[in-house]
Amino acid sequence: MRVLSSKFAIVLVFISNLLSSAVYAQDNQIIIGQAIDLSGPNGSIGRDYVAGITTYFDSLNTSGGINGRKVKYLARDDQGIPAQSVKAVAELLEKDRAEYMLGGIGAPVTDAVVSSPKFVQSGQTLFAPLIGSVKSYGNRVLFWRPSPEQEMQYIFSYFDKLGIKSVGIAIQENSVNQDMFQYVSNEVKKRKMQMSGIVHINNSPADIERESAALSKANPNIVIVVADTLSTGLFLKEFRKYAPRTFVAGMSLTNLDTLAEVAGAKSLEWTVFSQVIPNPQGKKSIVQIEHSNMMKKFRDEDLSSLTFEGFVVAKTLAKAIQLSKSGKDGLQSIANQKSTMDLGGILLTPHEGSYRMSSYVDIALFRKGGGLMF
Question: Which residue has the higher pLDDT, 148 or 327?
Fold first, then answer.
């Protein structure tokens, strides 16, 4: 009996140690949460973004994690609905005890999350939401991507070099776009360009067609669109009937899949988009190669600008956590640092008070037959 009891005791100790190790491993994880549109209007953007983030954290965990701690990344589908996002964020903070929160898509969702009681109580900084409107949140939000104004400046500078002086604007009329519309209008005046006309994108296809026809007769060299993806598609569908070879410029958060569905693939020819990330298909930098290799290894999905942006966002957050002294001040630490952070060919140099990590902007042309050409 004593022998059996002794053996039984050894087994109990062994099981207890296993359970303790499992609990310790779970407690020792770094929980990173995100509420983002995975099945709503911007679902394809969200899915690509999450695929890139997941890929980096998977590759990181295979090499030991961050300072010996594995990353547990939890992405919740908010369908692009602010109330859903607030609920998901509250659960991630309370139930899952997320230590860091990544942002979702659009200003309405971000507004709702940042002002929600649970997020305010957490004292956290929301990192890397995808917003295409002019909006400032101070130190409550740390953006990875450059500002929409920087994207628009690049578009203007790019076409200014080509000698383009005649500009049209297509504006989706809502409160979110008014600041950017005013910015574009002021930039046209500042650069002494000619305003050819304005198309107001509303719910009436007849009105959009009428104004598009009038704009085409004014023969602008380029039309800059200040609108979400669906409204951009509605405009292109009508405008291309009259101006198939006029440049139309959109911004980096345009959902190209949805745009092609609404406007038709042929309407996207002669359309350009600002980009906040280098060519995801390129091999010029270490991080481009790293992204390509890890996506093949862990995801088996097509590369895109959004998978690449998600990948480098996750890499930036990992560096912030690694550099953090207390374990929870990493984002504010990198937001306030003055030195350059090298992600393997992408350089981040935050400007004091900007709460933006990157200032990289490029432009890509939608090639005939589909796909972006950088």
Answer: 148
